[in-house]
Amino acid sequence: MRVFGWAADASACGYYRLGLPLEALKARGHRTLVSTVLPAGWLDADIIVGQRVCMPEPSQTWQRLARDGHLLVYEIDDNLFGLHPTNPGRRLFGDSAVQQRVRDNAAVASLVTVTTEALAQVMREINPNVVVLPNRIPGWLLIRDRPRRQRLTVGWAGSATHYADIAEIASPLRPHVFNRSKSPLRVLEVAALGIPAVASEYGPYEDFVRPGETGFLVRCDHEWVTYLRELAGDRELREVLVADVRTLALPAADMVILGDVLEHMASSEAVDLWGRARAAARRGVLASLPVVPYPQGLAEGNPFEAHVEEWSDARAQAVLPGVVAHDVDGEIGVYLAGPAEEPACA
User: Fold this and answer.
1) What are phi and psi of 257, to 5 degrees?
2) Which end of the chain has the lower number of beta carbons within 10 A, N or C?
């Protein structure tokens, strides 16, 4: 299959929304090309993905391709109909003729792809055939060493479309219809490197950031300073580990909590992890897992979300050493064990 990605620009939008997906297709044997220019030799591609096509000449080509029956996918990752007054993109996308071309080009597409459900709701008013394809990051980012510096560094991530957010302080999203349709891409990137984020409790961050685990969510203005100071003063709190727990050397801790973990690996690996967790814990280990048949495959393409083996309460008590207390509530069993006993002195 030949797939052409008609990129709007060479920025991160083109990379994440066209470059990475088409690179994956190419690795699976398909012929792909991504460019900001549609070459004549690719006009007969099996699929043409156009990223927010809206300028006059490209729009004429797009409309002609649609009339000729080509399979077209209109890709858009921002709500271009709800730009904030401070957004420099308003100079282009705020123009009524440009907005009409966005609508017309999306309307004739066979499919419209977006990043979030909030944006999908906007685009379904133009074309009912809309699918949400969340932003993804390249796999190599998960194994890249986290940058380390002698001095603490506090970063801010955002493009020129976020001037109003910079004014908010160091961060992210102010309540606005444009921001409501954004994705948690920036937080996803830093999370892959093990860097905690301080983000607005708004839009995509509400469901992505786990307060106290992968970062903090800000509800009130003064919390920016509170959370940044807390992270700046606590090195351990800034360490968000991103690793395969089956091979990870667990750091010493008072408690090791294995919530929704053991069922995602073979039972032999689970028992090994349980033993290493008890060895790392000063006070104990707490685990929870389904103890009824609970089949689960890949979640959003993540193979580590699949349930590998079935567990029962009896099996958990039999194979997890040192359990001192347990409870079953519906489908979930919870198991508590003390730390591993130190070997006796010779």
Assistant:
1) -110, 120
2) C
